[in-house]
Amino acid sequence: MSAPKPLPRQPEVNIGTLGHVDNGKSTIVQAITGIWPARHSEELKRGITIRIGYADAAIYRCPSCEEPFNYTTEEKCPRCGSKTEFVRAVSFIDCPGHHSLMVTMLSGAALFDGAIFVADVRHKFPQPQDREHLQAAFIMGVKNMIFAQNKIDLVDKERALENYEEIKSYIKGTIVEDAPIIPISGQHAVGVEPLLWAMEKFIPTPPHDLTKPFRMPILRSFDVNPPGTPGDKIRGGVIGGAIIQGVVRVGDEIEIAPGVKVEETGKYESLVTEVVNIRAGGRNVEEAKSGGLTGIETKLDPALTKSDGMIGNMAGSPGTLPPTRYTLSLEYDLFEYVVGVQERIKVNPISVKEPLVLNVYSAVTSGVVTKRSGDRIEVALRRPVVAMDGDKVSISRMIGSAWRLIGYGRIVS
Questions:
Q1: What is the dihedral of CA 221, 224, 230, 233, to 10 degrees?
Q2: Is the pTM of this model over 0.90?
Q3: For the chain, N or C: smaller number of CB within 10 Å?
Q4: Domains of the chain (ranges plus CATH)?
């Protein structure tokens, strides 16, 4: 695995990857960034993304070459040798495609500014998880999307055109019906230039409000200390995520909620700690702004952050975080059919005492329905979440051996 290359500027947009488990999402990210985004040993052994992966890239434009072949990730154009012009830096959020990991995918999708939807050109579109990922993206409000026909080197022209028509037909009438469809081979890095061109044309950098208090859903967390590190050399816990508003600086005090459970009361208490170091764009920085993925080293006990122990928490300026909720009241809508299975299974109404899995930002929690009336339900949560009125929530139900997406909701008072 390559070490991340420092970028000229901090990333300012998050681009997710979506699609079925074998479609080659991580391979495409590697073709663009040079980084394999699945960095856990079990993921590497199995060849699939189990947890959220991540990688950054700088995008450059060649002033001499013609569109759509004038975009690259190099400072010197590989086609004509001209010096390229820096355009922007981006962060990739690589989501798992396997149906049993759908709740993990939803955690990442909540932070997308746009997405590359990867289709395996060899198979009829959509495959089961393709449908599930596309529906999830719509729930999360992802409107800026590119479709990548991956593994184009393994089919003939006739099959490639068939797959193109399958995609066009399926997305007709949706908010992404005009999305570009780019043929690519992630394995051989063929078609990367047009894909970068499409990213620049169809996934704009969103506006960022730097005046609001710092806030970041935690997507990953780590203990960076090798085994056997002497006590006086131990570094504090590291949290990572996408800053959704404001600015964070080295030396700032931050709050993390819901935090940790107090056994005596059964309630959660937030944690307050100090920012020791910030890493963004492959380098250490004094401050990080909203947009792109950011790693923050803190003074937390690394035992709290190891093995993604802080996923689902929210970090922010002390006293400014949304409330910690032990119950959620939702206005909700259900799909007509269960998403992500081959057969057509009708979605039955939600019932009182039914267990559900809910996704809010990067948090995944389960709960039991305690009330239902009309288009509203109240759910008692096993683990609290930090969220505001109006925030979107995805709803999954156990069907067969997996949690399946059946609808979505909005938090109400």
A1: -90
A2: no
A3: C
A4: 14-202 (3.40.50.300), 215-316 (2.40.30.10), 324-411 (2.40.30.10)
